[in-house]
Amino acid sequence: MTESSQHPHRVLVGGIRHELNSFVPGTVGMDVFSRVMLKEGPPVIEEPASSMIGAVEVARRRGIELVPTLTTHAGAGGPVEDEAYTELAERLLELAAAQVARRPVDAVYLHLHGAMATTRRDDPEGELIEQVRAVVGPEVPIAISLDLHAHFTDRMAQATDLVVGFRTCPHTDVVETGARLMEYLGDMLDGTRGPRATTVQRKIPLIASAEAHDTTFGPLTAMQARARELEQTPGVLAISIFATQPWMDVPDIGWSAVVSTDGDVELAQQTADTLARELWERREMYDVVKTPISVVLAEARLRNGEGGPVVASDGPDSPTAGAAGDGTAMLAEIVRTGDDVRALMLVTDPVSVDAAIAAGPGATIDIELGGRITSEFYAPLPVTAEVLSISTGGEANEFDKGASAPLDLGKTAVLRILNTTVLVTEFKADGRKLGPYLQHGLDPRDFALVQVKSAGAYRAEFEPIASVVYDLDTRGPCDSELTRMPYRRITRPLWPFDRDIAQPW
User: Fold this and answer.
1) Is residue 453 within 8 Å of residue 431, measured between CB atoms?
2) Count of alpha carbons within 13 Å of 51, Cβ hemisphere only?
3) Residue 2 confidence (pLDDT) above 60
C-alpha cells in the first residue's frame, strides 16, 4: 500500500513492558509504570527510545496507518503486581476493541520485552497476545518485537505470526528492530510475502549471566552472524536468539532459537533446531570470569587516568537487570584502605539524599550509605562525606534519551568521600549510561576510576572513553555465578546447574 492509496492498511500498535528479576525485593506497581512511561492514544506512536521509532518511520514511508492503543514501560525489577498488570492489560484491550469496532485492522504490532511476570502469572505476555488475538480475530496477523533477554514461551509462539528480536547486546538496534518488523508486516500486507507467517522455537536448557550475551566481542557475536546466514534461506523471514534474562526464577526458563517463516512449519523447526544445536555446543564459552576489586583499584592507581579512566562494572547490582543499585562494594574497599584514587560512582539511597539536602552544600555529614533496599545482599556503609551539590529532582535529562530507567532520578546529592565522588540518587539510575553523571556536571573522563552498574551493556557508552574495562567480582541480585543464587522454581536439568546433560532436547 503506497502513500497515495485511498485506504491504507491499518496496524494496531501497543505494548506492556517489564523485565523480571526474581531476586530483588518488592514488587512493581502502577506508580512505577506511571513514573517511567505510560501513554495512551496518539502519544503511543511518539514513544522515545523504543522500537516504535523505527516502526513509525517505515509505516509513514509505506503509507501504513498505525492505530494506537496503550504503551507502558517499567524497566526491570521484582514481579509486577497482578492488579496493576490486569488494569493495564484491560485498558489496552478496551482501546483495541474500540479501534476495531470503529474499523477493522489489517495487522497488529505489539512491542513487548518478553521477560515479564506478575505476582500471579509466569507468562502474562503470552496471555496478552492471545487476548489481542481474540479482539482482532483469527485471520489478522500479529507481530511482536522482543528484547534479546526475552523468556520466549510456547504460548507466545502459538499466538504469534511473526517475531523479531533485538540482535545486539548492548541493545544498539532497538530502532532497527521496529523498522525490520514493520517492513515484514508491510510486505505481508502488500502481498509480496505470504499473507501469514509461522513461528516456532527450540528451547535450549541453558542460562548464562548477561556478561556472556555481549555481541560486540563475546561468544554470541559469531552466533548472531550464523543466524543472519540462516536467515538468507528462501522462505525464512526472521530469526531471533533469545539469551534469556537469567535472574528469572520461573519454570521452563532457557535460551530460545526462534524462527518465523512464510508459513513453512517444517522449515521453521529445522532451522530453529540447527541454530539451537550450535548455541548449545558452545555452552562452555558462556562462563563469566570476574576481576577482584583490589586488582582494579591497583590498575586505576597505576594508570591515574592516563589514556582514559579505568571503568569497572558492578554487574551484580545492575539496575537495568532489576537490581536497586544500592551496593557499595568498591566504595567499602576504598574506605577500608583509605585509597585516594580519583573515583566516580553511583549509589541509590533516598535516606542519604535527604540527609545531604538537609545539611546543604559544603556541609560534612556522617551517614550510612547504601544497602537499605537490597538487605539480603548489602548493608549500609558508615562514611563521612562532604556535600558537593544537591538537587530536589524533576529535571529533564538532555543527556540520556535512551535510558530504560527513569530519566528523572528524583532527589540527588553529589558527595565526596576521601577522594571519591559519589552520585547518590533517590530513584535508581541507568547504570549503563553516561547520562546520569553528565546530568549532574560529572564527566567520567575527568576521573581515574569510574564504576558503572551493568551486567555487560555498559560497554557501548563507556568502552570508547576507557583505558581498560573490568567486570568486578562482587555479589548481588544479578550475580554472574548463577549456581549460588537461590533458584526454587526453575525446571531441571538446566545448564550450568547440570553440566552432564547428554541430550538437550
Assistant:
1) yes
2) 33
3) no
